[in-house]
Amino acid sequence: MDLATLAVFRAVAREESITRAAELLGRVPSNVTTRIQQLEAEIGVALFARETRRMVLTSEGKAYLDYAERILNLADEARQQINPEGPGGTLRIGSMESTVASRLPSLLAAFNRDWPEVTIELSTAPTRQLIDAVQAHRIDCALIAIAADDSWSALDALETIPVFREELVLLVPKGHRAVRSPADVEPMALAAFAPGCTYRMLAEEWLMGGSPARSRLKIQEAGSYHAMFACTAAGACVSVMPKSVADTLSRLGSVEAHGLMTVDTHLAFRPGFATPAFLEWRKRLLAASDIEPSASA
């Protein structure tokens, strides 16, 4: 097993195809097939289930992919750290969906224009999953939401810098009565991302806090802010999201927004992680920050 073989394995796992992986890697399909067969023989288990048109990871293959990702990412990090002439290599950025939509497009475009040597890999997930991914070396850094009283102990092992401040709003169907407290909210159904989302946690705490309605709150998990907004406009649910996102979705229907609180978005990374590409990305985020230094002290 070597890094080249691990890279082949990762490409096949991502593409679910020998042919597409070979095209991506600039190899012939027979070479990719041989590499996978040699790796499976060395490990002693099947990493893929061969279907008619797809190569699907087995349970053992999924577990092995996690290790392969970490090894390859660490190797890339080491190359960048040892030869820090300038930004290069791959920068793996994780982010919440809302931050990608409202904050990152222009920043990423400018970064790519100035540093085309850097390959950006961008992924999205709720905060909890992003923290885990940074810890496991699957990504290099992440933009996450941290509540003032956040007790997630995993944050103790990461460095965090506040970069953006978001106003969270409660969206209710058009014509809903005035919302002065959680008791005014109907229906008692919340459209939200899967567990691990800070905004969901805060919404649940606000809607259920100190109220007999606690047991009546239903959660309708949604895969996007578009779905949350549409469910709210249809009258089926309420939802909570950054005002900047809600404003961009207003074309999907009519809702009413009630301000709830502000929550800071932080850049999270492992202590000591300082590749040239990351340092440049951090500098640009801080330059675009809307949080005064005194506010983050």
Automatic annotation (TrEMBL):
Q: Which residues form the HTH lysR-type domain?
A: 1-58
Q: InterPro entries of this UniProt entry?
A: LysR_HTH_N (IPR000847), LysR_subst-bd (IPR005119), WH-like_DNA-bd_sf (IPR036388), WH_DNA-bd_sf (IPR036390)
Any Pfam family hit? HTH_1
GO MF, one term, reads:
DNA-binding transcription factor activity
**SUPFAM superfamilies xref list:** Periplasmic binding protein-like II, Winged helix' DNA-binding domain
Q: Which PROSITE patterns match?
A: HTH_LYSR (PS50931)
Protein name per UniProt: LysR family transcriptional regulator
